[in-house]
Design a protein that fits this description.
There is one protein chain. By secondary structure, this protein is an alpha/beta fold. The protein has two domains: about 240 residues, Rossmann fold; about 70 residues. The chain is about 35% helix and about 25% strand. Strands 6-7-8-3-9-10-12-11-13 form a nine-stranded mixed beta sheet, with helices on both faces. A four-stranded antiparallel beta sheet has the order 2-1-4-5. Strand 1 and strand 2 form a beta hairpin. Helix 3 packs across helix 4, helix 3 packs parallel to helix 6 and helix 4 packs across helix 6. The chain is globular and about 65 Å long. The chain binds adenosine-5'-triphosphate and magnesium ion. Adenosine-5'-triphosphate binds next to strand 1 and helix 1. Belongs to the ABC transporter superfamily. It is a peripheral membrane protein. This is ABC transporter ATP-binding protein. One of its GO terms (biological process) is peptide transport.
Length: about 325
């Protein structure tokens, strides 16, 4: 048996913009091993959500979307499965947590009945066992009065509480893979830490793999084994978390990291920013996607797309600066 749980191969996700098919995800390769936590970072509009939602075909409802490539989950290509098969996988072998909890919770059922259903259906528990486990999960996500919450409807709860219920639901079926897209952004810092701790525990105890999408580099440093940096639909750098923080190579990664106060900025100095903003899909540059904002870009960068090169074991960079030094292309 292979140790790879998810392998995305040359994934393109295209939407029609001004009568042309344009890629929001543009040739992404990504592999997650069993028990591995992979972080995905990048500014708004870099394709993190489109990429992660495509794994469970959550963009199929867009009237126009086109996929190319493969998404192999335990060896099966999810892009080729019928949607009813994908629904069976969702909430059982793969769970998702998104920023907006109401997309995952039913407004007409109590929190308890929704959580119990997951547990009876996927874990084979009886009613009593399911109730006990549901209350335990609610407690683990930091809900102060879980017995009471069990009886409530989602609309009776605050946004932060709804978020925690959704997290409890996603984790209670003990998935093999958790996809978490900015799962804690709406929560206050102490609760955020509690949720990250819960994810870490399930990873260590059950070997749950995680695809963790975030803007929070601190959370990446605390939780993830390795990191992919995305820019305009592409992975521009990937490495182990330690390597990426110690030796960021892509000018974009360097820019992202220098925006964190304690890394590379002296006290009292203003935070640097990456100049300019992420262009819309219709304005993606021809050559290196980052060239319009890169201080090091030259004519060659503007005209030709750089290859992804492995500069050290597991450390891959998509930038001409490293390609030219004759490093191995992947
Ligand atoms: N249905 C659609 N039609 C056209 N373009 C789309 C569609 N859905 C998403 N996009 C575009 O795809 C790009 C990637 O969006 P995505 O939501 O994946 O970014 P993101 O990295 O998750 O950003 P954020 O950090 O803000 O969540 C954006 O340019 C977005 O406008
Ligand atoms: Mg997003």
């Amino acid at each position: 048996m292979s140790d790879t749980i998810l392998e995305i191969k040359d994934l393109h996700v295209l939407f029609p913009v001004h009568k042309k098919w344009l890629p929001a995800v543009d040739g992404v390769n990504l592999k997650i091993e069993k028990g591995e936590i992979t972080g995905v970072v990048g500014e708004s509009g870099s394709g993190k959500s489109v990429m992660s939602q495509t794994i469970l075909r959550l963009r199929d409802h867009d009237t126009n979307v086109r996929y190319e490539g493969e998404i192999l989950f335990e060896g099966e290509d999810l892009l080729k499965q019928p949607l009813n098969k994908i629904r069976d996988i969702r909430g059982d072998r793969i769970s998702v947590i998104f920023q907006d909890p109401l997309t995952s919770l039913s407004p007409v059922h109590t929190v308890g009945s929704q959580l119990s259903e997951v547990l009876t259906l996927h874990k084979g528990l009886n009613k009593e066992q399911a109730k006990e486990k549901a209350i335990e999960m609610l407690k683990l996500t930091g809900i102060p009065n879980p017995e009471n919450c069990f009886k409530q409807y989602p609309y009776e709860l605050s946004g932060g509480m709804q978020q925690r219920v959704m997290i409890a639901m996603a984790l209670s079926c003990e998935p093999k893979l958790l996809i978490a897209d900015e799962p804690t952004t709406a929560l206050d810092v102490t609760i955020q830490e509690q949720i990250l701790q819960l994810i870490r525990e399930l990873n260590e105890k059950l070997g749950m793999s995680v695809l963790f999408i975030t803007h929070d580099m601190g959370a990446v440093a605390n939780l993830c084994h390795n990191v992919k940096v995305m820019y305009l639909g592409q992975v521009v750098e990937e490495a182990s978390t330690e390597e990426l923080f110690q030796n960021p190579l892509h000018p974009y990664t360097q820019g992202l990291l220098s925006c964190i106060p304690h890394l590379g900025v002296k006290k009292g100095e203003p935070l640097p920013v990456i100049e300019g903003s992420v262009p819309p899909l219709s304005k993606v540059p021809v050559g290196c996607h980052f060239c319009t904002r890169c201080k090091m870009a030259d004519q060659h960068c503007m005209e030709h797309e750089p290859p992804a090169c492995e500069v050290a074991p597991g450390h891959v960079v998509k930038c001409w600066k490293y390609a030219e030094s004759g490093k191995q292309e992947v």
